Amino acid sequence: MRILSPDGTVLRDWKPRPDDRANPEIDRGHLRDLLRGPLDVQWGRGVTQVVPAGRGALVHFADGRQEGFDLVVGADGAWSRTRPAVSPVTPRYTGITSVETTLDDVDARHPDLAQLIGDGSVAVYGENRSVVAQRNSDGRATVHAQFRAPLNWHAHLDLTDPEAVRSSLLTRFDGWATPILDLLHRGSSFVHRPLHVLPASHTWTHVPGVTLLGDAAHLMPPLGAGANLAMLEGAELAEVIVADPADLDEAVGTFEERMWARAGRWATITTAGLERLVSPNPADAVALFDDVQPG
């Protein structure tokens, strides 16, 4: 992990020592394939609504079909179609937007940027904005430009026009060192990701036949906790069901209570972290990493 100032000065450069705890990462698609295994996953069956029905729930699909289930687990992300079955709460915009681009075959095609990113990631923090680049698998690197802006900041842009988005980003980060701007300049396409969150205290009155986990239950800033919580929750939900299959409703209620307490803590932590990482004082971001890095 390397941190630079907008003028390119290296402020921190961490490399793991032999006895440091590892923080392994994996691309989401690869992880999904590992977890899927032999499961019968039916892609493309869009859900429009989940309706509690007695001790179970009825799922309405986009193709007009309906199916009943003993338990529906809404693990369908920020804009969950399952959440309204248990909670009226919707995500709110944080005031911070992320625009993502990708550098393919970074070592061969962009060796200078590969050196800038290093073996892990590089982050640059300025006033109310940041650029973070991270190595992924298959020789790729992802680049995230984050900044405070109204939700409709792009009203004058065609987000499907890469050159228009690139030009807007380069203007927004004008004055930053050329190698940092090149992380944005060389991206081939851009994805707009406004950051939304659910309240840190989000809970709901238990509804038989329906529950939530992951972002559907506790959407929080993308600082490394959300996906890990979702996987842990999936395992915990399975465990409580297997331990008490005769009383599915009680098992799910036990799971929810445990999930709410832990997710609330992490939502509070990540919300405060995002405020420091994209803040008027870039020193706050650097200090945040000093708090968590070994040594």
From TrEMBL:
Start-end of Basic and acidic residues biased regions: 10-26
GO molecular function: FAD binding; monooxygenase activity
Classification via SUPFAM superfamilies: FAD/NAD(P)-binding domain
Keywords, comma-separated and alphabetical: FAD, Flavoprotein, Monooxygenase, Oxidoreductase
Keyword NAD: no
Coiled coil: none
Residues of the FAD-binding domain: 70-241
InterPro entries: FAD-bd, FAD/NAD-bd_sf
Positions of the UniProt region annotated as Disordered: 1-26
PANTHER family: FAD DEPENDENT OXIDOREDUCTASE DOMAIN-CONTAINING PROTEIN (PTHR46972:SF1), MONOOXYGENASE ASQM-RELATED (PTHR46972)
Protein name, as recorded: Monooxygenase
Species this protein is from: Actinocatenispora thailandica
